[in-house]
Design brief:
By secondary structure, this protein is mostly helical. It has 5 helices and 2 strands. β1 and β2 (55-57) form a beta hairpin.
């Protein structure tokens, strides 16, 4: 998963229309569809329900879950990159212990979490976002 895929998904989730999202991203619909299918394959979940008349987010598509406790330097770097690539996305930060972060993700209190821990339960998708 890379930031290009995440940005494409965010724009598509906002628009809920492949044509409008592709236009905003300055690409054609076919490459956008391939990017989203690749992201879904990498995550192992279906993010969107597609029909000829509409595009809807699945339950999995409403939340992008990572996990929580990352150093300030790396967090600043990640947030700056996100701001450059997705300036319309609002980010609010909360500092929590890992167990409370996972509880909050389960309760839909948070859309995502960042952590240095790699031992999260199977119900979460944990992916590296900073190398």
């Amino acid at each position: 998963m890379d930031l290009r895929q995440v940005r494409a998904f965010i724009v598509l989730a906002e628009e809920l229309h492949f044509g409008c999202a592709a236009k905003r991203l300055h690409i054609e619909q076919s490459p956008l569809s391939r990017i989203i299918r690749k992201l879904e394959a990498e995550l192992g979940v279906t993010l969107l329900k597609r029909s000829p008349r509409e595009v809807r987010l699945t339950c999995e598509g409403r939340r992008i879950a990572l996990s929580g406790g990352i150093g300030p330097a790396r967090l600043s770097e990640l947030l700056a990159l996100c701001r450059d690539e997705a300036p319309d996305v609002q980010v609010r930060l909360f500092e929590l212990p890992l167990d409370r972060l996972m509880s909050g993700l389960n309760a839909d209190l948070f859309d995502a979490g960042l952590t240095l821990a790699s031992d999260v339960t199977e119900e979460f998708v944990a992916l590296p976002v900073v190398a």
